[in-house]
Write a structure and sequence with these properties.
By secondary structure, the protein is mostly helical. It has helices at residues 9-38, 49-68, 72-83, 89-103, 113-116, 127-132, 134-148, 152-173, 188-201, 209-230, 239-257. Helix content is 67%, strand content 0%.
């Protein structure tokens, strides 16, 4: 798991959603107080000094929440109200109308629980994965985030980018002399052929033959089945497709990270 990270989008959405709910509760409570004040006996004191202090504190707290969730217009209205306290339900309703109008400009993103577990999924990788293959792990983090919001083609795109990091690592690990620069760097077919040739040249007695053949097979299958088709607009993927691909690639990256880093070290 990453040692440090910024708040994830999901974390912020959870916190912001709570703030929205709390603002609604605050409004309901204050509206009830104003209603009781407006309907009180004419000769009774509408607001005591303690009640005014509580009202000012409540408005200030609502202003703080609006500032946190990015509602500047409502923030300004609440700050004015806390300086010049509304005295009637009607006056308070004017403040609420500003807040409610700005709320209509906000859009919440709902992520079902079965997909939410993939958000920030990169944090579930082993420490060795982040240490040895940070680029690949980062791409998988993006892939998981895309899956969570139902962007399945984008999920697969990032997943195959993760595999490409591994492709170059294996190429370097086998000390293949041909560089993967220029146009050749992105040609999976050429790179995979060199990797396959390098594995075969080491012979059957090579101690790591089985491991590297498995890594090669996984990369070749991913490239043929998903990477190449994803580059064409005619291909689309379902949620089940994307989830299966994500899991296959995640397994590949974790397996690879136990053997080498992104520079292919230690060499085979």
């Amino acid at each position: 798991m990453m040692a440090t990270r910024l708040w994830s989008l999901l974390d912020m959405l959870k916190i912001f959603a709570n703030e929205y709910v709390d603002i609604g509760k605050d409004i309901a409570n204050l509206e009830m107080n104003f209603y009781m004040s407006d309907t009180a006996e004419p000769d009774s004191q509408a607001w005591s000094e303690d009640e005014k202090a509580e009202l000012k504190s409540a408005l200030a707290e609502m202003a703080r929440k609006c500032e946190q969730i990015g509602m500047p217009t409502a923030l300004a209205a609440l700050q004015r109200a806390s300086r010049n306290l509304p005295e009637t339900q009607r006056e308070f309703a004017q403040v609420v109308s500003v807040l409610e109008h700005e709320l209509t400009t906000k859009l919440f993103l709902f992520i079902p629980s079965e997909r939410a577990k993939y958000h920030e999924h990169g944090g579930h990788f082993k420490t060795t994965t982040w240490a040895n293959l940070p680029g690949a792990a980062t791409e998988m983090l993006h892939a998981g985030n895309c899956f969570a919001v139902a962007e399945y083609i984008a999920c697969i795109f990032h997943a195959t980018r993760s595999v490409e990091v591994g492709l170059h690592a294996v190429h370097a690990c086998l000390a293949i002399a041909v560089p993967t620069g220029g146009n050749d760097r992105n040609n999976w077919g050429s790179i995979l052929k060199r990797i396959k040739d390098a594995i075969d040249q080491r012979g059957k007695a090579w101690g790591e033959k089985e491991l590297f053949e498995e890594l090669y097979a996984m990369m070749a299958a991913i490239g043929h089945a998903w990477r190449n088709p994803t580059m064409h607009v005619a291909k689309s993927y379902t949620e089940a497709d994307a989830e299966r691909i994500f899991r296959v690639v995640a397994d590949f990256i974790e397996k690879l990270s136990l053997r080498m880093d992104e520079n292919g070290l230690p060499l085979a």
